[in-house]
Design goal:
Chain B: Belongs to the Ahb/Nir family. The complex is a heterodimer of chains A (177) and B (147). Chain A has 177 residues and is an alpha+beta fold. Chain A has 5 helices and 5 strands; from the N terminus they run αααββαββαβ. Chain A has a 4-stranded antiparallel sheet with strand order 3-4-2-5, with helices on one face. Chain A starts with 6 loop residues before the first helix and ends in a 20-residue tail after the last strand. Chain B is of the alpha+beta class. A 4-stranded antiparallel sheet of chain B has the order 3-4-2-5. The chains are: A alpha+beta (177), B alpha+beta (147).
Chain lengths: 177, 147
Amino acid sequence: MSVCTSRLDETLAQRLIHLTEAGLPLVEDPWTWLAEQLGISVESTLDLLKRLQGEGAIRRIAAVPNHYRLGYRHNGMTVWDVCDEQMPRLGELIGAQPFVSHCYRRPRRGDWPYNLFAMVHGRSREEIDSYREHLRFLLGDASRADEMLVSSRILKKTGLRLAPPRSCRSWLASEDR
Amino acid sequence: MDELDRQLINRLQRGLPLVRHPWQAVAGELHSTPDELLDRLHLLLEDGVLTRFGPMFDIERLGGAFTLAALAVPESRFEQVAAQLNDLPQVAHNYRREHHWNMWFVLACATGEDLDQTLSHIHTITGLEVLNLPKEQTYHVGLYFPA
């Protein structure tokens, strides 16, 4: 839990996760429903949500599309071997491109030279190829090598879900995560 | 899907406003009514165009340990190894990607210790080297798919 979230908020956040595991009820006044479930006032509920969203514990209260159904059938994990000194600036730059859904720095390994990951999505292969070209242009000489790993099959995708308490918990962050 | 469905999908991907009457606020923006938007949202969820509507928690800030990992699986064993991984509750998602490292999966565990054990368990049951690539820095997370 983040350092700025209080103990009480932490408890309430855990209850919120359970209460909204299947989503927020589709009612005109969802905050009253949540307040009743949490046993606090509507005002406190709204304040709690604002605090958690302000801290980033809740990214937003939002709809998650099935992106395949919206026509986004192509995704590529672009990976780049970026010069370490320039990584802070370039990571932010790449992450800020509107067609990049996730952007992370990850470690290089023995036979894995890439330290910057940027996920791109599109409605055609040509579209994601063009995104990769654009990232290559932005990175220039700071990237020594790159590849795009195209996904060809979803083997498993678990929705936002809390597994049995004893064992590990698995979630879909996004993303996408 | 008509124009209002598309507008609703796009608007709700950006998040419900945290105001006292959020559906009235969104209905005002989209020149609709809360009832109509809720009906459409219900249908979009039922139809599977939307997979979920609700708070998106940054689970990593609420505890837990996560990583992205990959295996280079021989083609002859691909289905078998996919089934082995998919049986593990710690595997949140798993994709085939066209590369020497052809199986990419996200592990979501309660603790770092669980995560280490899961990684070595995968190595043991598959006999394959696991490429473990935990994130070191997040530059951006923000899925947005204009409908």
